[in-house]
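Listing S7. Sequence submitted for prediction.
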Amino acid sequence: MLSYSAPLPPRSFNLARYCLAESATAKPEALALIVSRDASSDQGATYWRYGALEDVVLRIAEGFRRCGFKRGERVFLRMGNSADYAFLFFGANAAGLVPIPASSMLSTAEASFLIADAQARAVVTDGTLPMPSLPEDVRVIGPDGIAALKTSPRGDYADTKADDPGFLIYTSGTQRSPKGVLHAQRAVWGRRPMYQGWYGYEPGDVVLHAGAFNWTYTLGSGLFDPWANGLTSIVYVGQKDIAVWPKLIQRHGATIMAAVPTVYRQMLKYCALERGALAPLRHGLTAGEALPETLRSAWREHTGLTLYEALGMSEISTYISCSPSVPPKPGAVGKPQAGRAVAILDPETQDETPLPVNSTGLIAVHRSDPGLMLGYWNRPEEEAQVYRGQWFIGGDLGRLDEDGYLWFEGRADDIMNAFGYRVSPLEVEAVLARHPAVADVAVAEVRMRNDVSLIAAFFVPRDGQSIAPKALIDFAGQELAAYKLPRAAFAIAELPRTPNGKVKRSALASLMPAEPAEGAMS
């Protein structure tokens, strides 16, 4: 039986210590983090060196202890895009607590659900986002509290074990509400196959991540991994403007950039890119949504640089990728990273035997992988559904070819992808269905052209009532994060259903009019 073959972490292990301690001791003056607010000037940049970075993290850790928090308690981060987000995440982890990173785009209703579901002991807020109503036993740490944590006496890393809880993230599941994915301290060790299997790190690399601090893609590929290798990270916190990325690359000497495909597509469209314009960038990394081959080719043609794609899940992060040592193969995502045990299993049975080469089935990762989650938070039934013996199955379909490359074939369930986030159609439908003018509704991810897809809603108006598509989308926007909202809505006579009444999502795209009515697309 296949199993994880790379080295395993030591039994005593702490995520924050693994990322920071070695560099803070060996090279405390080395540059760890650049936080930029203005790509055109150094005036808006803040620089953090490894010694100072570790110091603030360990002061926050000691501050949490002195506030009476106990190891394993959950701390929800309700904060905007600032370096404090990272400091609080690492400080909580260093104290043996379990930080919960959450998107700043979440509505108060969504945040309230996550806080209650996680049984969070505290909510940290920097005052930039509206606060949800909270149970009386949930402590609020506001801006003054954050300042107090950062000026606490310096403590030390908690003596956690590799299998102790490290952090909790939420992702869309097969139910109407998001589910918590609980990761162990060892999760950061489980990312080691990415260092060469995706990033292609070299000494002295400067890594620019196009995401915000509160995104797990940024935390992982923008902070965890560069810091674990003693590299420099760049995160931009200024006004959104696609033109900032070339400027940041040149101003701060970025050698690697990580983003979703949409960012690279917009750079090609709106920035004057040519060969040499992005020096010293060596290559780009892309994940979160499929990378169209047309985009990879166009990027290469205009910049002379390669985009390296990766496939991942909230439950394990990326595990399939191409890299400088694994050349991209047109149409394929990449290869399983060195040491990982990946197989294709029969989607129709419970057989644990891997399928032959070029057979399409469920992509499975062996349970021995240290990057794999501890489990779903208080969701035993959903957790049971994703394991088949020694294999974890996340719902992605694919096939492995004769050269070991994986070809992604879509999802076995209905989970949608929106700008790198997984979105459950059931969660969106539950909100849309509450509109008084809607009798029936379904949502699906529909492809507009080869390289662009979006979430669309198809609704049946109640007899004698009507609603403008934009008004329906705005209604949902009162409760849902912006990335979960449909980008189009279409009134139809009835939803396509199977004989047993289940919505046929695969048939929804065919109901889109060839010429959408004005106001149907947002």
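Caption to Listing S7: primary sequence and predicted structure tokens for the chain studied. Residues 50-66 form the longest helix (17 residues). The chain has 13 helices and 26 strands.
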